[in-house]
Amino acid sequence: MKNCEILVIGAGAVGVFFHSRLAKANENAKVSVIARSDYDHVKAYGYNICSPDEDIHFMPSAVFRDVSDYDRKADFVIVCTKVLPGIDIPELIRPAVSEDTSIVLIQNGIDIESGVAAAFPDNELISGIAYVGVARSQAGRIEHTDGGRLKLGVYPQGRSGKLEALAEMYRKSDIPTEIFDDIIRVRWEKLVWNTSYNPVSVLTRSNTAQIMNDPDCETLIRGIMEEICLIAEAAGWKQRDGIVDEMLAYTRQFRPYKPSMLVDYEQGRKMEIEAIIGNPLRTAQHYGIDVPHIQSVYAIIKLLSHSSTKI
Amino acid sequence: MKNCEILVIGAGAVGVFFHSRLAKANENAKVSVIARSDYDHVKAYGYNICSPDEDIHFMPSAVFRDVSDYDRKADFVIVCTKVLPGIDIPELIRPAVSEDTSIVLIQNGIDIESGVAAAFPDNELISGIAYVGVARSQAGRIEHTDGGRLKLGVYPQGRSGKLEALAEMYRKSDIPTEIFDDIIRVRWEKLVWNTSYNPVSVLTRSNTAQIMNDPDCETLIRGIMEEICLIAEAAGWKQRDGIVDEMLAYTRQFRPYKPSMLVDYEQGRKMEIEAIIGNPLRTAQHYGIDVPHIQSVYAIIKLLSHSSTKI
Description:
The structure is a homodimer.
Chain A lengths: L3 E6 L3 H13 L3 E6 L4 H7 L1 E4 L4 E4 L3 E3 L11 E4 L9 H5 L8 E5 L7 H6 L5 E14 L2 E14 L6 H12 L4 E3 L3 H22 L3 H5 L2 H20 L8 H11 L6 H7 L6 H14 L5 H14 L6
Parallel strand pairs in A: 1-2, 1-6, 2-5, 3-9, 6-7, 7-8, 9-10
Antiparallel strand pairs in A: 3-4, 8-9
Helix pairs in contact in A: 1-5, 6-8, 6-10, 6-12, 8-11, 11-12
């Protein structure tokens, strides 16, 4: 079987978690990474990924400091960066994209694909959503606490043989991977949870259990979820009936959990406010839908995120 | 002219500011105060009130550590405490209220009178709203930055000779004082500003100029203001047309200003969340009015205010 060249861009916790496993389980997969802040460490020692039941060491096929250093022909360029206003993904990945490269975006939020699709109209674009609890604790070291599933689909819709082959590689690595013909609907489904719990946890400095113990906050969470469902439906991606009650019940059984946006806020890192809250709000405005809970939360968290240097 | 015995309860910045001036300008007014944390200092040295154009020294007619120590017959018991869930105003003032005592509440928020009215059905109850920028900077010392007006009315409505006499004493002290037959309407008017700027400034850590520079925050402020107008109208206190645009324009010309709730939050003091946000929300629920902006802001600030010891 011929080699499969994979380049992971944004080799943070999510990118390293999935592709270290993929590389271990698929001998023909040659996984290279772009490492910036921890380049020297990773080049010398690779990564250690510490899970509850096992520790994995992973030495990439090649480590590059910059995408322009990449000297291979990528079958897959897999982008696992956060979605932040300052990061121009098409410009970032361009040096590594050749004629037959499939571009894979494993990222949060909505409306994250269109810029890449427009910049590379002739390349296959795969949209992916990760469900995993991981964090980088130091150079070259990733802590994995729970989960580790993927949902993938061709953007804007459909499936392909190459996507099937990629999914098969993940599955061979014990990563449950589902393919969807309507991956955008799945993105909206994830937003039902993300657009509600993420900002509310930041604004209240509270974990999921503390939020669910407060009836007024539960009302707010429900309000945001119902608004996301309204926007999704207007955009053509109606969610299944009962999804809001289902997600509330699901979250109520969690152990107390800190949403990733709260972790980012506490550690002084940038939050994915536009991908997760601003983009659905703009979609609502496009369709003329009134979403006052989302509007309130967006206005507050956006100004808060700029306020560290203020007053 | 016979003496007028006045007891100020909650001798913080607001109470001391107005009644030091009143005592100076009205020889027959005997102003006593309840001083708790700074009792020894005030008993020995009185208060210094520092305004931009003058400093006033004020020695109360008498200083008491506790209301139960009060040994006179009060013509007016004037309550200037913050409105916080832990403070039972009727129990607090009971020792000082006799047959002919008028009770005056100079406090923020809505629905703050009913408990006192029920506890003292035979006493006149006067409801008052202060417009002043003052803060206590240390024991016995008050900093006055701007304003200093009062709006007063008999609760639930009307006016009285005794109220006229009190207002006249304030006016003699150069405190512009207006009497309203419908003071509750004026309370709702003040809420249009308070329920919007106060919590939004806390949640965004921003002053009024920073809020007004962000179009999404201005939209949120407007949304809250319009919801307060809807609730006020349902409760029988319709606000004048154009009040929302008027208040936005008025605030836009301010020098950058930190609302008092933000100052309380930054200094670790309790915020008047229920009087200013919770009570109007409950009024909305009573009348079946949907107020999603207020609901969002209330849920967030209430949980945030409990979160210092959390996670």
